[in-house]
Structure formats: structure tokens, C-alpha cells
Amino acid sequence: MRVRNIIFMSLVGIIFLSIIISSLVRGEKEISTIENRSLSIIPTFSLDKFLETDYQSNLEVALTDQIIYGDRVKLLYNQIKNNNLDHIVSLLKRFEEEKLITSSIEESIIEGPEENKSKIYLESNTIHQEMKSERDRIKRIEKENIERLISMGRLPQNSSFEISITPRGSGHYELDETKHLIVRKRTSKDADKLFESKANNYNLIAKNYPDLSYYCYYIESDVDIDFINGVIDHELVNLFFGKLNSSINKTALYLNEPTDYQNYFYKTDHHWDVKGQLKGYEDILWILNDKEFDTLDIETKLIEGATYNGSKSRTISDFKLKDDFSILISPLDDHEVYINGVKSNYGLKKRYSEGKYSKDIGVNHYGIANGGDFGLVEYRFNQPDKGNILVFVESFSNPVNEFIASHYNNAYFVDLRYYDKSINPYFDFGDFVDSKNIDDVMFMGYYFFYANDRFLIND
Amino acid sequence: MVFSSLTFLFIFFPITLIVYFLTSSRKLRNIVLFISSLIFYAWGEPIYVVLMVFTTLNNYYFSLFIQKAKDNDRTKISKIYLVLSLIISLGILGYFKYYDFLIVNLNNLLNINLDIHNLPLPIGISFYTFQSISYTIDVYRGKLKAQNKFIVLGTYVTLFPQLIAGPIVRYSTIEEELENRTETVDMVAQGLRRFILGLGKKVIIANQMGFIADNIFNNSNTSAGTIMIWIALLAYTFQIYYDFSGYSDMAIGIGKMIGFNFLENFNYPYISKSITEFWRRWHISLSSWFRDYVYIPLGGNRHHAIRNILIVWLLTGLWHGANWNYIVWGVYYGLLLLIEKYILKEVLLRIPGIIKYLYTMIFVVIGWALFRIEDLSQLFQILQTMFVYESISLRTVMIEYQDIFYALPYFSLAIIGSTPLVKNSMEYFEKTKRKFNHIIIDLYHISILFIVVIFLVGDTFNPFIYFKF
Q1: Could you report the per-residue pLDDT of B133-147, keeping only the tens digit for each?
Q2: Which residue of A has its CA nearest to B442?
Q3: Which residues pair with A302 in a beta bridge?
Q4: One-character DSSP codes across B447-459
Q5: Alpha carbons B205 and B228: distance in angstroms, whole number
Q6: Percent of chain B with pLDDT over 70
């Protein structure tokens, strides 16, 4: 018994010691590629932090991050979780399908096959004209115009649809047909207060600086579509635009049908795919139509062999789900780029085009190829006859920054999440537009850009 | 600090054990335990550690005064010392745990506007206060001699294995061991196995069950329907058992490793066939504490038994938390026990075991609903949904509650583990004296340890429910 106990204790001791020693020998790891984040490092002890219990919680997080083979252990754990989920979901889906088959057989015997019930509603317009013929003519023109704008995706169009989805855990679902991972739609209740403060912020800026031109571009995404109940009603963008003053020009990447989402967005990431990026660029030129910009000749380049595991596949830890990865390229005039005031290169599109990129699992190609998130990215195209633009952005703008910038003399892309951390002094709208001779101001982002107080503009 | 944290497992525990076993004298080992226990507590409560030391000092000095008064046959004086000590200990507990509850209710009742403190509840205050006062009462009763070495009493009150979530260890249980314990290789190994089992209960089962319960209870998108409410409550029923009994196992295991033999706190409560039996098997150290320090002094079975039972259960409810649902929960059990004692006693003897089991479990699950849901209107809604059938479609379950599928398979482990099946099997294998069986048992423990590390690293969801008591 004694020998057995000594062996048992020794084994447990060896396990603990080997984990501790190998973690120490390896040294601190800074980045987790799979989680796409910086890892916490062992904190330095200070009495203040200990008394506030920050030291304790930071140490626990750091140990979780720094333990040897932590990445693999996390992957293994998530694999166990996902296996549980997949088995139960497939079991329940099979059960549900059998139930549906049984009930449809019963119904077809009584009523015959049910027809597809998808509907499309067009928004109505009212036009006041005295002359019937004139009214008809205007109506016809307007109808044609609306249809044209709808077909271009520049006006919202409500629709209902049926789509088959499968739960994938952590609040994610998979569209069965195209394997797009989606999250649930946000409600106006979630958004209302946040939209209110953001809209008030923009309205005040526009009121205080009336000489500037203002543009707002809202990128609809899966959080704007109710995939679960099969409804597209543009509730969120309409709510937000309804709160903005008329002095701000506005349009959106309107997703009028589920296929729009599937066309414009990655399967595994919350960002837009190259088609969405291109559409975004075209929309932005359209909203800036008074400037009469010429559209750039942009080429889509598929990066051979690059597979992209976006944020959603990382969240559910399923690295088998992948996207092809492409980038947008256009021969631009000579220009300089400054990141946080330092002359630099933004993004690695050229290297990607040459096939020079990491082949590791979970690499954030979107951020690396198109450029990361920085407080201030400045483009100088040296076209003094053109104006200057200030664009408030988050990561959606990264792939198209250079294209937008090419239409201006100087273009400034400000990400308020990072600006105050990297640029001194803190961002002040008045100072910025005065010092940079700004003509146009644009707000550009998806739901969380607008429903988020971190992007409020100080003045 | 919690046992199921990497900080405890990879830093605190190994260092404490190494330093403990490197010191040779009993006195030094007690000092190591006392200091490490203070660090353990201060890790989570750096400020309130002072409060715990103060409570210990209060009971240390007043017990010495009581002892002195008793030695000089000054009974009245010793009683005054006891009352003073109780006022201070219970006053601290009352101030930190019940003051706000009292003020809120007074404000509502009298339509006044007294300020509340909103002070955070010191971790484990109910446990160490009850341990401390039981010591002082026992000294007053003459069952114990007052301990004149502060380090020894301090080690008893602050002893980290059982400090923050019990079991409530009486001084008399470990009096001898505090100064004359022996640590053997066999005890360390047995303790280690017990600790690993407790850790597994907490991390592998309780956390998963908690995940299911939280996911269903916290989902405000849709009405959960009867089936999901029952799943949530069953998950919570298992969560609270594995959380608390796992913690007790870890405490008993660590205790054994350093030479202490704590009493068992759980004895498979979910196989009980009556509520009375359930409470003989659940949180045994608390039930026996109330029996010895409240119920019997009030007169026990001999005088006003009904009143005494109701008082004890009202206090048991209040001990668990300062909210009306805990009071309702306590009174609920008081009434059930009275009904069993005076009405159902004979009936329960005659009906089949499975019926008795179902009856017990249904009332236990209802009890946990009372315990879990602090908002009384939500509680009534849930109780209604439990018994008035409300449907939910399979699609809604898949959409709204998909994350519970991660954890649902662990229900099977929870059910099996709540019976003595595993324990009996292991005991059987141990008795066979076959080396192969012993290797299997030890590999089983080591596997649990590996799985625990995988779960701890893979998941950060790791709260201990019993901390708030």
C-alpha cells in the first residue's frame, strides 16, 4: 500500500512539476494565433493591485494563457464541447425532420402540397400631382428609379424568407445551404439608447460645423437580418437614420435578401468579403455623387492556397470552416501613408499577391492583408485641387481605405477605439478639422460601430 | 482563492505543502498553516482578512475570560463574557450580511428612507463565524478547555481547506489533531485522491450543470416552457450538490493530507426517500450545528418541538442568505419536516421506495427553485410553469438554448455520481488487493486531474456558488 501511494503521489507530483517547469522553460508567450489576441503575461506584484484584487485576477488569467500547450488544450476542450453540441443537434434535427415528414404526409393527404410562401414587399411612395397624366408619368419615373436603386441595393426592400439553419454554439448558427456562420439579429430595444447618443453626437457635430459635408454609411450585416424568423425589415438602419439630421447624407449597404448577405460576407468572419468591400466602395462613391468621382478600376485577386478562419469560426473553435481569401487591388497614383503619424505601409496586399503570407491555422488574413486597426491612418495623394476627408471608421473600412483616399488630396481614417491610446493629444473634432483643412466628414461602420459609445466623437 | 483555480493548483497548494512538510515541529507547521490560510483568504478578501482575524481574537480572548471565570466558579460572569462574545461575532455577521436586508424591509414597511451600506459580503463569514462561536459556546459549556495558544486557535478558525465553504468543523473534532496530529504517506495519498475527486466534481460536473441552469434561467428571449424549466432546475439541483459536496471533498482531502480528519458533510443526499433523510445526508455539519447549538438549547423535542423546528429552519434559511427567498426556503423545509414528523411518518413507511424517492426529489427540486430564484414574482412564475404544462417547440429549443448542448451529456455523469455506485465500485476494487485494480483506480484519479486541467484552461466559467454564504 505504501509503495502504491508513493508511486501515485510521485506521478501527480511529476505531472504538476512538468507542467510548471516546461511552462517556465518555454518562457512567456505573447500571442495566440488561434485566438487572435495578445496573451496575458504574469503580472508584477504591487500592493495596490493586490488590495484591489486586480493582481490576483490578472495572475489567474495569465496562468491560463501561459500554461504549456495552452492553445492545444483550449482547442481540445472546445472540440469536446463542439462534439457534444454537434451530436445533440444532429439528433434533434433528425427527430424534427421525421416529425415534419410525418406531418407533411398527413397534411398532403388532406390539403395537397403547400406552396412556397415567400413574399416581397415594396416600400410605397406618395406623390401629390394634380394632373393625372403628369402624376402617372412621375410615378412611372419614380417607380423605375426605385426599382433601379433597389436593384443596385441602394434602397431598403423588406422581405420574408425561409432558410434552414443549424445551431453551432456560442450564439452562432450556420446557414445550411452556404455554411455561413451567423449571429442573432439585434433588436431596436438593444440599439435605441446607443443609437440615440451616437446620433445626437453626430447631429451636434454637424450643427456646430455646418460648412463641412457629412456622410453616413451604415453596413448592414447578419445582426440586421432575422435569419431565425426569416425577416428582413431594415429595422436597425431605419431606426438610426431616423435619428440623424437631414444635414447628414446617408446610405447603407442594404441587405435586401439573404443572398445579399451570403454574397457580401465571409462565411466565417463578421467582416465583408471582397464583393461586399467592392459594393461598399461603390456605395460610398454614390453617396459622394456631388463630387463626380471616377470609379477606380479595381481587380479582385484570389490568394491561391490561403484559407481564412474568420472571427466566427475562431469563436466556435471550428477551424475546419474556412473561406477562400481574396483581396482588392487597383493601380493607385503615388501616395504616402502615415500610421499614427509615422510614415509606413498599410496592409500587406502586395506580399499576399506575391504569395508571401503565413499558412498557419487561424491567421487573421483580413487584418494582415488589408491592414490592421490603428488610431489614425493618413493617406497623402498630393492632389491639391481635391479636398480632404476625415472618415471615422472601424475595421470594415480597412480594405477600402486606400480607394476612398485616392479621390482626395489627404484622407484621414480615425478609429476612436485606438486614437487616444496612440496619438497625443486626445482627439478633438474642432482642432482636427481646422488643422487638417477637412472638407468632408464620413461615418462608416456596421451595427456595433453605431451602437457603441466607444466611438463617440469629442469636440 | 478557490481550489479550482490554476493559482491554487499550481502555485499556492504546492508551495504550502512543500513549506509545510519541510518544517519539522508541530508549532512551526501550525504557523505555516496559519500564515498560508491568511494568504489564502486575503487572496480573495485582502481587506476583510482583518475582520476574520478580529473575530478570531474576539473568540480567543472571551474564551480565555470564560475559562478563567468558570475556573473561579463565577458562572454569571462567564455567561456575560459568552453573551458579549456572541454579540460581537453575530453583530459582525449581522452587520455585513443582514443590515441592508433589514433596512430595505424597514424602509418598505414603515415608508421611511434609511440608507443602506451596499457592503460586499465577506467570503465565508457565515462559516468562520459559526465555527468560532461553537468553540466559545463549548468552552462555556465546559466541553472544551479554552485554548491559550492564539496560533492554535487561529489555525483552527482560519484553516484554509474549510475556511470559505465548510464543512463547519467543530473545535472538539480537531482539538487533538491541532497539536498532536501525524501525517503519513498513506494519509497524504488518500487525501490527494479525495481532493482530486472533489475537484472533478466541481470542475467537470458542477460547472457544466451551472452552465445549463444559467443558460436557461438567464434567457429572456422566450418563455422556457415546462420541459426546459425542469431541465434547468435539475441542472441546478446537480450543480449545487456537486459544487458544494465537491468543495467538501476537497476540504476533507486537503485536511487529510496535513493530518486532519474532518467529518463527512454529504452522504448521497439525492438517494434519500424522505425529506428528513435528505437533511441527514445534506450539509451534515450545518444541520448538526443547528441541532446542537439552537434546537436542543431551545428545548428540542421535549418542549415546543414545532416552534423549535420552525425557528431552526427559519435561521437555516437566513444563514444561507439575506433575502426573502431564503427565508421561504427555510420555512418550506421546516414545514415539510413537520409534516413528515407528525403526518406522513406512518404513510412513508408503507409506500413503495420509488414513490418515496420521487416524492423526495420533487420537493427537493422545488426547494432549489425557492433557493435559486431571488425575485419572488419570477419564482411564482417558474413554479407555475413547472406544474402547468407550457409547451416549447424543438426549433425554439435549438435556437434559444443551443449552448446547453455543450454540457447536456454531463447529466449522465451527474446522475451516476449522485449515487454510491462509483464509490462502491472503487471500494470493491480496493478490497480485491489486486495490483491491476489499484493501478486502474489510480489512473482513474490521474485522468480526472488531467481532465480538470483541460477544463480549467479551456474554460474560464468557474464560480463557486457557496461563496456567497
Answers
A1: 999 999 999 999 999
A2: A8
A3: A326
A4: HHHHHHHHHHHH-
A5: 19
A6: 97
- What's the rounded Cα separation, in Å, for the pair A160 and A227? 9
Residue A13 and residue A21 in contact, taking contact as beta carbons nearer than 8 Å: no
Which triple of cell numbers denotes residue A159? Answer: 422581405
**A318-344 burial, b for 16+ CB within 10 Å, e for fewer?**
bbebbbebbbbbeeeeeeebbbeeeee
Residue carrying the nine cell digits 463569514 = B125
Question: Which of B24 and B355 is assigned the larger pLDDT?
Answer: B355
Can you tell me the distance from the alpha carbon of B274 to that of B284, in angstroms, rounded to the nearest whole number? 16
Chain A residues with beta carbon closer than 8 angstroms to that of B449: 12, 15
CB under 8 Å to B398, separation ≥6 — which residues? A89, A92, A93, A96, A167
Q: Which A residues in the span 172-211 are in contact with B, Cβ-Cβ below 8 Å?
A: 173
The chain-wide mean pLDDT, for chain A, equals 86
Contact of A11 with chain B, judged by CB distance below 8 Å, is answered with yes
- The chain-wide mean pLDDT, for chain B, equals 91
Count of CB atoms situated within 10 Å of the CB of A294: 8
Contact A56/B at CB under 8 A:
yes
Interchain contact, B6 vs A60, CB within 8 Å? yes
- Chain segment B169-224, per-residue pLDDT in tens: 899 889 899 988 889 999 999 999 999 999 999 999 999 999 999 999 988 766 78
| Interval B348-369 mean pLDDT | 94
Of B46, B405, B408, the CB nearest to A53: B46
Are the beta carbons of A432 and A419 closer than 8 angstroms?
Answer: no
Cell 443590515, residue located: B99
Q: Per the omega criterion (within 30 degrees of 0), is the bond before B409 cis? A: no
Distances (CA, A) of A342 to A346, A415, A424, B51, B63: 11, 16, 13, 54, 72
Q: Of B147, B253, B130, B269, which is closest to residue B193 (Cα–Cα)? A: B253
Specify whether the backbone of A15 is left (phi greater than 0), alpha (psi in -120 to 50) or beta.
alpha
Judged by CB atoms closer than 8 Å, whether chains meet at B457 and A67 is answered as: yes
Regions of chain A short of the pLDDT cut 70? 36, 100-135, 137-139, 141-142, 145-146, 148-149, 151-153
What confidence score (pLDDT) does residue A358 get?
Answer: 87
Length of chain A equals 459
Beta bridge partners of A167: A173
Contact A362, A33 (CB under 8 A): yes
Q: Quote the minimal CA–CA distance from B151 to chain A in Å.
A: 25
Strands (DSSP E) found in B263-332: none
How far apart CA B153 and CA B147 sit, in angstroms, is 6
The beta-carbon contacts of A430-439 under 8 Å, at least 24 apart in sequence, are A430/A208, A430/A209, A430/A459, A432/A390, A433/A209, A433/A212, A433/A390, A436/A388, A436/A390, A436/A410, A436/A412, A437/A388, A438/A212, A438/A388, A438/A389, A438/A390, A438/A412, A439/A212, A439/A213, A439/A387, A439/A388, A439/A389
Q: Is B451 on the interface with A (CB under 8 A)?
A: no
Residue A390 parent element (H or E) = strand A388-392
Tell me the residue type at A248: I
Residues in CB range of B100: below 8 A, 6 or more apart: B116, B117, B118, B119, B322
**Under a CB-based contact definition with an 8 Å cutoff, are residues A321 and A82 in contact?**
no
Our CA-based measurement puts residue B204 at a distance from the nearest CA of chain A, in whole angstroms, of 12
Higher pLDDT, A104 or B248: B248
Q: DSSP secondary-structure letter at A272?
A: B
**Which residues of chain B neighbour A317 with C-beta distances below 8 Å?**
none
Q: Measuring CA to CA, how many Å separate B366 from each of B242, B244, B376, B381, B386? A: 18, 18, 14, 13, 9
Angle at Cα B236 formed by Cα B232 and Cα B240, nearest 5°? 175
Bridging pattern class, strands A388-392 and A440-446 = parallel
Cβ–Cβ gap B405/A8 under 8 Å: no
Say if A7 is an interface residue toward chain B (CB within 8 Å).
yes
